[in-house]
Amino acid sequence: MNHEAWGQTLGQRVKVGKTGILLGAFIGLFSGGWVGLILGGLTGYFIERFLRKATRLAPQQLFFRATFCVMGKIAKADGRVTETEIEFAREVMARMNLNEAAKRRAIEYFNEGKQADFDLAKVLRPLELVLRTRFPLRVMFLELQLQVALADGEMSAAELKIIEEICHLLRFSPLEMQQVAARIRAAHAYAQHHYEWHQQAGAAFDERPLLQDAYGILGVNEQASEAEVKKAWRRLMSQHHPDKLVAKGLPQEMLELAKEKTQEIQSAYERIRKARGWR
Which regions of this chain are Periplasmic-facing, per the record's topological domains (predicted)? Predict the structure, then answer.
């Protein structure tokens, strides 16, 4: 590699800010002369410009917008938005206790995602930049989108394709995607079985499906040891802790969703604990 190319490469590694531009130019000057200075400085400038544009919105704003845009994208995946999917989006807004202004924004974003020319990557790449070191927030985002895909009970091939693209853009491994999806499927089934259980209060009811779902929510099998179950429970409770998520950039409006998730995890653990007779 010649001096000029080396200077340019170093310039490309420059971080955000004026310091980055100056540093790129400085290194370029000493590694490739005046041409290296120009190339290094320009490269640093364009990287800075891209990152500033990508992260112009606060993490909370990026998360909020992406959440509802992508919901709309998934809902329209099969060509039309079903009433079940619309109802789920409304339910999420209601659970978030959005004020009228926030609700209007959420609806606008949802409708934006439904458009045929909606660019998923354009919305998710800036989000990935700010959430790269905030894995719990990425997990929560994926969980919300999986819930949309499963709103009608099944995930279509078109919806799965979008989920896979989301995972690629947010840097989830195939295994991580499978694990999160399995937990969401279990949670979906748990809610349904729990509803049926309440409906048949006082009557004979087979609670085994509920117990199986509870294991699924924690991401462990029914043969897991007490230590393994407790480890999974503690990890998920920590990962979904509302205060920790808000500190990492979760929109304040979504605090209730995080609380509901921890309640779901706790409920699953309590069911397993009682079934096994643990103290």
Answer: 1-21
